[in-house]
Amino acid sequence: MRAVVQRVRSARVEVGDETVGAIERGLLVYLGFGRGDTDGDRAWVLSKIVDLRVFEDDSAIGPRKMALSVVDVGGALLLVSQFTLYGDLRGGRRPSFDGAMPPDEAQRAYDAAVREARAMVPRVESGRFRAEMQVHSVNDGPVTLLIDSATRGAPGRASP
After folding, report:
1. How far apart are CA 3 and CA 46, in angstroms?
2. What kind of fold does domain 2-151 have according to CATH?
3. What are phi and psi of 94, to 5 degrees?
4. Residues labelled as active-site residues
C-alpha cells in the first residue's frame, strides 16, 4: 500500500459540481492499494499517517520544529483513492497499472481504510472511489511524504 501525504491548510474533493469531502488544517492523503496488500499493510500505513509528526509546535523557546501529529493539532484527514500510485513506467512512457489491486478488491480496502481512519482521527473526509475527481488543496510548507508498506521492516528503516 502506498500513500502520498501532504500537509495542507485546506483541501477539498469535487465530483462534478458536488463537494464530496473537504477539510481545513490537516493531511491530504492519496491512497493506492497494490496486489497482495494485506490488512497488516493497511494498518501500518494508517498508523504512520496518523502518527506523523509534521506539524510545527508553537514553542516560544528555540526554533519551531515539526513535532506534532494531525491528532495533536486537532486536524483532519482527507483520504483520496489513487490507483495511479502503482503506475509503472519501466516499460516506456505509458504507465502500466498491473501492480495495482483489482478495482473491486481495492474499493473494499479503501472503504476499510476510511472506516479505520475514522476510529483514529476525529474528522476524516473522503473522495469517491472510481469517480472522476478534482482535488483542490492549499499545501502548507509544502510538506509532502511518501509512505510505502513495501519498506516496512526494511534494513536501515525504523518500524513503529
Report:
1. 9
2. D-tyrosyl-trna(Tyr) Deacylase; Chain: A; (3.50.80)
3. -95, 125
4. 82-84
**How many other C-beta atoms lie within 10 A of the C-beta of residue 119?**
8
In terms of pTM, does the model score above 0.85? yes
Contact 25, 11 (CB under 8 A): no
Which residues neighbour 155 within 8 Å (Cβ) at sequence distance 6 or greater? none
Contact 25, 76 (CB under 8 A): yes
Cell of residue 52, nine digits:
506523523
pLDDT in 10s for each residue of the chain, 160 residues = 999 999 999 999 999 999 999 999 999 999 999 999 999 999 999 999 999 999 998 766 666 789 999 999 999 999 999 999 999 999 989 999 999 999 999 999 999 999 999 999 999 999 999 999 999 999 999 999 999 999 987 665 454 4
